[in-house]
TrEMBL record:
One Pfam short name: PHP
Polymerase/histidinol phosphatase N-terminal domain span: 84-159
Annotated source species: Goekera deserti
Signal sequence annotation: none
Annotated spans, Disordered: 1-25
Protein name: Histidinol-phosphatase
Molecular function via GO: 5'-3' DNA exonuclease activity; 5'-3' RNA exonuclease activity
PANTHER family tied to this protein: EXONUCLEASE, POLYMERASE_HISTIDINOL PHOSPHATASE N-TERMINAL DOMAIN-CONTAINING PROTEIN
Gene3D superfamilies registered for this protein in UniProt: Metal-dependent hydrolases
SMART domains: POLIIIAc (SM00481)
InterPro entries xrefs: PHP_dom, PHP_domain, Pol/His_phosphatase_N, Pol/histidinol_Pase-like, TAT_signal
Length: 566
């Protein structure tokens, strides 16, 4: 199972390609039927969670299962990874410049299968931009039938950072986004004097109300699915641990994850390489008055920097992400471009006044390469690989919602087939895959099988990256934390590091067995080209203005949970 960048694209998404109107979107019975079936699957999955796990489903522990629980994300070995990017800007953002068609064309050129246009929310965008960008997205869908192009929004989360919010094309999708932005965008609320600042703490209740609104649109049959991913969560430290937990609990089928790796990866290219000389991801902000005080930089650790290009929340073993997983909370990570202005491009923003038009106008070609830009094109460096059986809008979103996701930089890998299963007793013989949950009898063994598809060709930098090592990381599931601002999981560790043979071709197979399992646990996998590691094999803290992103490549896969029975 893998993703190739030079592959023929199939056409099983024609029911929505090139049009906002999904033929089933206006059929309330059809939408309700699919929603009922999805709910039935979710209910069956929840029955298998076990009483040791809190914060799942509607934010409470499930009852102890009777008999054999139902596995979540059962392994099939047949899914195919589709590469995408859920964080892309156009001229309809006040700090970006490209036409929709340009971003869509570049995404197709660099091998993406799906993408989300996410212009910044705000008063001007809500009043002027939506009506301008919508037909352009529809036209790009028509012109690029092999690329799924979603319309979304970069939401100014009240009381926090930014987030991607998006829905599949449907009769109500644009109006849902329009109403959501008007009622719940932090910048709009600040302009209306309903909050002190977009990021001030008095906005937190609005954020929870907003997520419940999206959940209600799905439950009411107006949309089939809606998703939210928190963007660049540690950049300014204003996404506190309790906010992340609250988002997840408020709408667990909508608020499903965060950028494990932010965009703006070219920002760290040194000046002597004709780069901007900034920090990767533009993670060079000092703490603000709204930053969570627990993110306290030290001489050896700085939460406001990236590590191997990945957000500190994700990169630190036993850190904030692991603290969520240790509670048994499904919370997924992704990788995006956050493309605004592309390094060494010759275009600069148009001269149209954004505040009164919602657009920066047609970009101007200066004929001079811009070395101060900090972004890459969609698909050029970052990819979010989603396992799906069909190339459709809803299927990709279901894969994202289920956590069947790998965040990858520089085409380090094409995909990874993960299979986790109990090896004896009454465990599930098929096992489960990424984002899944299985079970084992107390004292039994759990086998992990990884089949990693190695880079099949050169990346955008012209080199074929070499995967050097793979880490299997695991920690116990200990239940809900008493302190909702918990940001560490001290029992989580790297349980095995696999060295990938230098001569490996096409794929590599790795196995590990957890023996005599006594406690519910989770596992996750990361990998590296091995170029920049500390003494423990962890990524190094990125130095502002001194990072070639292609010289330090990583992937992070989402977790699998294992419940102990008996």
């Amino acid at each position: 199972m893998g993703h190739g960048h030079d592959h023929p694209h199939d056409h099983d998404h024609t029911e929505v390609a090139g049009s906002w109107r999904d033929p089933e979107a206006g059929d309330r019975l059809s939408v309700s039927r699919r929603r009922f079936l999805a709910g039935a699957v979710a209910a069956g999955a929840a029955a298998g969670l076990g009483s040791t796990v809190a914060g799942l489903g509607q934010g409470v522990a499930a009852a102890a299962p009777k008999g054999r629980p139902t596995p979540v994300n059962p392994w099939t070995g047949t899914n195919r990874f589709l590469a995408g990017d859920h964080h892309i800007h156009t001229q309809f953002s006040p700090d970006a410049q490209y036409e929709v068609e340009t971003q869509v064309s570049k995404a197709a050129e660099y091998g993406l299968d799906w993408m989300v246009v996410t212009d910044h929310g705000g008063t001007a965008h809500q009043k002027y931009s939506i009506d301008q960008v919508t037909p352009r997205i529809e036209a790009s869908r028509e012109a690029h039938r092999d690329l799924l192009v979603y319309q979304g929004l970069e939401w100014n989360i009240p009381g926090a950072e930014h987030a991607t919010v998006f829905l599949p094309p449907g009769a109500n999708s644009v109006e849902i986004l329009r109403a959501f932005e008007a009622g719940y965008d932090g910048s709009v609320l600040a302009d209306q004097k309903k909050v002190v600042r977009s990021t001030s703490g008095d906005g937190e209740p609005f954020a929870l109300e907003a997520l419940r609104y999206l959940d209600q649109q799905v439950r009411g049959g107006r949309a089939e699915i809606a998703l939210m991913f928190a963007n660049h969560p540690a950049r300014r430290g204003i996404d506190s641990p309790h906010e992340i937990r609250n988002w997840r609990d408020a709408a667990p089928e909508v608020a499903v994850g965060m950028e494990g790796a932010p965009g703006h990866q070219a920002a760290g290219i040194p000046l002597d390489m004709r780069g901007p000389g900034k920090a990767r991801g533009y993670y060079d902000f000092a703490p603000t008055e709204d930053s969570f005080p627990g993110y306290a930089p030290s001489a050896t650790e700085n939460p406001y920097r990236t590590y191997g290009g990945f957000d500190w929340m994700t990169a630190k073993v036993g850190g904030l992400w692991d603290s969520l997983l240790a509670e048994g909370r499904p919370w997924w990570v992704t990788s995006t471009s956050d493309s605004h202005q592309v390094w060494l491009d010759t275009l600069e923003p148009g001269e149209q006044p954004y505040a009164t038009t919602g657009s920066r106008g047609t970009p101007i070609d200066t004929g001079v390469q811009q070395t101060g830009y900090g972004d890459f094109w969609p698909g050029y460096y970052s990819s979010t690989l989603v396992a799906a059986q069909r190339r459709t809008y809803v299927s990709v979103m279901r894969g994202l919602q289920a956590g069947q996701v790998i965040a990858v930089h520089g085409r380090l890998i094409e995909g990874m087939d993960v299979r986790v299963r109990a090896t004896r007793g009454d465990g599930d013989a098929r096992g489960v895959t990424l984002g899944g949950r299985t079970h084992v009898q107390r004292g039994g063994d759990v086998q992990v099988e990884l089949t990693i598809e190695l880079a099949a060709g050169p990346n955008a930098a012209g080199m074929v990256p070499k995967l050097a090592k793979v880490d299997l990381i695991s920690g116990p599931v200990t239940g809900a934390a008493a302190d909702r601002d918990t940001l560490s999981a001290p029992q989580t560790s790297v349980v095995e590091t696999f060295e990938v043979p230098a001569g490996a071709r096409k794929r590599v197979r790795l196995e590990h067995t957890f023996r005599n399992v006594q406690q519910s646990f989770y596992l996750r996998v990361r990998g590296s080209d091995g170029n920049q590691l500390d003494s423990a094999g962890n990524p190094l803290i990125d130095v502002a203005g001194a990072e070639d992103p292609f010289a330090d490549l990583w992937f992070y896969a989402n977790p699998v949970f294992v419940d102990v029975l008996g």
